[in-house]
Amino acid sequence: NNLTDKVRVLNKLSTEMTLKDLPSKPDILVSEIFGTLLLGESALDYIEDARNRLLKPSTKIIPQHGVQYAVPIECPTLDKICSIDSWNGLDLSMVNSLKDTASCVFTKKYGFRMSTIPFKRLSAPIPVLTIDFATTKMGFAPVSKKFEVTATESGTAHAMLLFWKSTDEGLEMSTDPEDTKDNFPRDMQWGQALQLLDSNTDDYSAALPAPVIFTKGKKYSFKCNTSEDHVIVQFGVKGDKLVVAEKESSEEVKKESNEEVKKDETA
Which residue from 160, 145, 194, 175 is spatially nearest to 66, judged by alpha carbons? Predict the structure, then answer.
C-alpha cells in the first residue's frame, strides 16, 4: 500500500512501550481488546495505562464508550442442554445438584449461537458497567452491587444473558443477539455469556437448584459481584421475596420508630 515510510509496527505489549518508542505522543488511540465480556481482556486496564503514560489529554480514543449489559431470559433450549430428569426409567434428577449456576459460560462453549435459538427477555437490559475509555479509571465501580428489575414478561428465568455495546460518535458495535443474526464472525469472535440462575442462591441447604419464576409487573433483585478489575462478572438471585421482605422490614422499622417516639412523648 506504499505506506512503508508511514506505518511502523512495534512488536510489543502497550504496557512495554515507552515514549522513546514513539516520535511524539499520538493524536489517536485505536484498540479492540474486548472479550465476550466487555472487560474480559482487561481493556480498561491497558487503556488507562496508555492514557497515563503515552497519550496527550486531547488524544482521541476509539471506541470511546462501552456498556456491559445483562438480561434475564427464558430459554427452554438451554434448559434442556443443562438439565436432566430421567433416562430409560432411571430417575437422574439429583444429577442437577451438580449444575453450575455460579459461572458465566460463553455461548461458544455451549456450541450454539444465541441469535439462532429461541429465547424470551423477561426484563429490560441491566447496564452492569458503563465506561468512558477516555476518562474512566480502574476501581470506578463497586465489586458488589444490587440491581432491581421489573418483569416485562412472565416466564422462567433460566439464565442471565450478558452482551455489550460499544459506541463512538453515532457508530455502534454490539454483541446483542439481535444485532448478530447476520454476523457469524462476530458471534464466533465474541458471542455472548450465559449464567444459569438459581433462586436458592442463599440457601446452601437446598439439594437442587430451583427455577426463578418471573411474573409480569413484579420487581426482582439481583446481586452482581465482580472481580476488582471487573473482568469476571457473577449474578446472585434475590427475587421477589427479598423485595417484599425489604418493604415489610422497612414498615417494621417505621412502626418501631413511631412507638419509640410515643414512649418518649409519654415520658
Answer: 175
